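<purpose> Linking amino acid order to shape
<body> The protein record starts here
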Amino acid sequence: MSRKLKFAVCFVTIVFMAVLLTEFQIVFFGEDTKPEKSDCIIVLGCRVYGITPSPFLIGRLNRGLELYQNGYGNYIIVSGGKGQGENISEAEAMRTYLASRGMDSSRIIVEDKSASTMANLINSKKIMDTMGFKTAVIVSNKYHLKRASLMAKSQHIKGSYAGVFMSSYKMREIGGYIREIPAIWKYYLLKAS
């Protein structure tokens, strides 16, 4: 076997192992993590169609509302700005959805400036500091929680996590698990630079 071929085989093996290790961390974290009673619940934003929350966002909101109703937090911070093709901010769509499900509007805190997960957490931490909140349950899709946890720690958020898996959108969920691999690598690279 030539030196170039050996190098290529070694390189492919290393990349393959790195992919497997990263995916294992993503899946294990999403499945293993459990919410803890906290001062607030942060629901991370997701796509809105016009003014209607996407199915993934509805899943996150339903999980956040369930946690609120079960005493895991006294407030819900809905976090997400207005993206392309969205008539209102994700946070406003989230507030409307929760209020329509009977949640007390005074317990919903709107953070509508964020355009990324990191911005969600930076801006939500500012709200937590203003309100005197020390702990949070962070809600998202299970595939998203590992990266969200890394970002939350970087912002000194004392958080626990609660995830959703939309079984009726299994292929989109699987796509999310795959997309998270380069997203986590990018996070580590940017943090290291």
